[in-house]
Design brief:
The protein has 267 residues and is α/β, with parallel strands linked by helices. 37% of the residues lie in helices and 22% in strands. It contains ten helices and seven strands.
Length: 267
């Protein structure tokens, strides 16, 4: 992963803001975790690895639901691995998706949610996912649609650019809902795709500002950037003025994702 991406995940707060925003402000029901679990049809006894585990809330939800099998959270961020290790019964592992420290056929199920587009070599990661999943196991991958939430992304990019911040193309998604199925078909024998189309809808300025702030690191304005406070203040003013000038209007930003599930029956 890139240096900027590593910096973005030193603190799990922006990630938590984004997750909370999608949960609270989606136009339609937003349940990617439930979609993954429905696709996998877990019994609760599986050995499961969550690759790019983030703040480990997915694993924590499994534990709370009574999952009995071994659970592993893998991430390249020490902060995220530390979060995984706070969940009872979860092993946190610091590792790259392209080179995972597990034996062949270690897991009954493997999940990689909203992370494959951060991996320099997605195909190598897919090969690792297959290698470490048992015959008869399943791999579930979640990626966004291309240009998810473009309106807010363009807003943040414009304000960053006004302070001379260049676009960071290392954050550009290399894998999305259009390209993932074909990539997986090169590695797995069968792939099922479950699609979700949605949008974020904001009726007031505050939650949009909070969401936009959580994206600043992806646009070259991390927490320690000398102009971050100024960028955020300009952004806050811009969003507030937009809502003042459009009474009763909503800020709508299209988004969506797919859950692609591969079975390893013929490994």
């Amino acid at each position: 992963m890139s240096t900027r991406l590593d910096a973005e995940y030193l603190d799990p707060t922006p990630l938590r803001v984004r997750i909370d925003t999608h949960r609270r402000y989606s136009e339609n029901d937003h349940h990617p975790t439930e979609d993954v679990l429905d696709a996998l049809a877990l019994t609760g006894a599986e050995a499961l690895a969550d690759i790019g585990c983030g703040d480990a809330r997915f694993l924590a939800d499994l534990v709370a639901a009574g999952h009995r099998g071994p659970l592993v959270g893998v991430d390249t961020s020490p902060a995220m691995v530390a979060a995984a290790r706070t969940v009872p019964g979860v092993a946190g592992v610091l590792a790259d998706a392209e080179r995972m420290p597990f034996e062949d056929g270690t897991f009954d199920a493997l999940t990689a949610r909203h992370m494959l587009y951060h991996v320099p070599d997605p195909q190598a990661a897919l090969g690792e996912f297959r290698r470490t999943t048992k015959p008869g196991g399943a791999v579930a991958i979640v990626v966004n649609h291309p240009h998810t939430c473009p309106r807010t992304a363009e807003l943040v990019a414009a304000h960053a650019s006004s302070y001379g911040v260049r676009p960071d193309h290392s954050f550009r998604a290399s894998v999305d809902s259009d390209t993932l199925p074909a990539l997986m078909a090169e590695v797995f024998d069968s792939v099922e795709v479950h699609r979700s189309d949605n949008a974020l809808v904001f009726e007031s300025a505050a939650p949009l500002i909070r969401f936009a702030e959580s994206l600043l690191g992806f646009h070259g304005v991390p927490a320690d950037h000398p102009d971050r406070a100024a960028v955020l203040e300009d952004l806050r003013t811009d969003v507030t003025e937009w809502f003042d000038a459009h009474p009763g209007a909503v800020w709508r930003d299209p988004k969506g994702y797919i859950v692609a599930v591969a079975r390893t029956d013929n490994v």
